[in-house]
Amino acid sequence: MVDFEIRPSGQPVPEARRKAILAAPGFGRTFTDHMVTLRWCADRGWHDGRVEPYGPFLLDPATAVFHYGQECFEGMKAYRQASGAVGLFRPEENAARFNRSADRVGMPPLPEETFVHALELLVGQDSAWVPDTIGTSLYLRPFMIATEPALGFTLPSDSYLFCVIASPVTAAFDAGTAPRSLTVWLSEDYTRAAPGGTGAAKTGGNYAAAFKATQQAVANGCDQVVWLDALEHLWVEEMGGMNLFFVYAPEGDGRPRIVTPPLTGTLLPGVTRDSLLTLAPQLGLAAEERRISVDQWRQQCASGEITEVFACGTAAVISPVGAVRSAAGDWPVGDGRPGPVTLRLREELLGIQHGNRPDPFSWVRKAC
User: What is the pLDDT of residues 15-58, one digit of tens each?
Assistant: First the structure.
């Protein structure tokens, strides 16, 4: 285990100001008093671990991350429990995905126990920043950047900086205490990821490449973009930075069914996605992974086979989709409002995360 030096901030945010922020935190705009830093180089491995005051980095203009985009990151949350403790939701899964992303862009692995320990140290140091109402949380952003100051691009950097920062947040797309239905735009001009690319990695280039399509979605009165496959532009993949689920009306067994596109290497394997596939059968829902085409989505909404659609991810938790727009035409999803399956899954997942529901899978790890 890497050792971390604790250097408390001499100028923490005053308590009154912090409480005002926690009352209406928004998303990702305000950060806690501290951050974690850890460095790597070929001859020393991981070293110089610190919990230190939140602040800027000093980087050479030639630093590799600026020119070649060699970086990866994670998104996860710490939740105030009903007991008053603070829990991390499935941090080991984020640690494993972080290393898969790092490997894809040629970066060194970080031992999973060190990754989780860094999170626990920061949450423990800044536990006063964890809000306590359902739907709010402390968003954690671990990331790693290439720090070699050189413009050679044939080999990856020879040094790296790992960092964790934290921000109190509400769920993205929430309207007050409830999720609002989203209108989504089918992107037929742009592609998020292709087979053999970096679609399964959580790396910044994927998000930078998405901004143009997102601007197009907003210009068409939509909240988010839905990505289609790169080869045929026929199969639904994911929505923005979130995974999609389709809710089907009960069939012979009397159970509603949730269906999500399979992981093909072009989709991000979401921790929330995996959690819902595991949780759904416990709630009497069938769950499966299979491909869904745009035509199937449109026709099955019209026939009533698809009754609800929702997106899921760490930031959004579970967000209902109420309507779809495309260059070829628009169609509603159900009655356009959040459906009962969507709301039940959301309530159950948030209940587990906040300690108000049983945690049969031991997903929540006590941080402090």
Answer: 999 999 999 999 999 999 999 999 999 999 999 999 999 999 99
Q: How far apart are CA 247 and CA 341, in angstroms?
A: 8
Look up residue 18 and give its two tokens: 């912090």
Measured distance CA(59)–CA(240) in Å, rounded = 30
| 280 secondary structure, DSSP code | G
Residue 298 to residues 323, 326, 333, 347: CA-CA distances in angstroms?
10, 11, 9, 28
Q: Which helix (H) or strand (E) holds 313?
A: strand 306-313
315-318-323 Cα angle (round to 5): 110
Distance between CA 107 and CA 100 in Å, rounded? 10
Q: What is the pLDDT of residue 32?
A: 98
- What pLDDT does 172 receive? 75
Where do we find the tokens 């579970």? 318
Q: Which residues of the chain have pLDDT under 50?
A: none
Other residues' Cβ atoms within 10 Å of the Cβ of residue 270: 24
Q: Which residues pair with 136 in a beta bridge?
A: 170
Provide the H-helix boundaries in 24-90. 64-68
The count of other CB atoms within 10 Å of the CB of residue 335 is: 11
Question: What is the number of other CB atoms lying within 10 angstroms of the CB of residue 126?
Answer: 27
Q: What is the DSSP string of 200-250?
A: TS--HHHHHTTHHHHHHHHHTT-SEEEEE-TTTS-BEEEETTEEEEEEEPP
The 8-class DSSP code of residue 309 comes to: E
**CB-neighbour burial class of residue 151 (10 A; exposed 0-12, middle 13-18, buried 19+):** exposed
How far is it, in rounded angstroms, from Cα 210 to Cα 199? 12
Answer whether 0.85 is exceeded by the pTM: yes
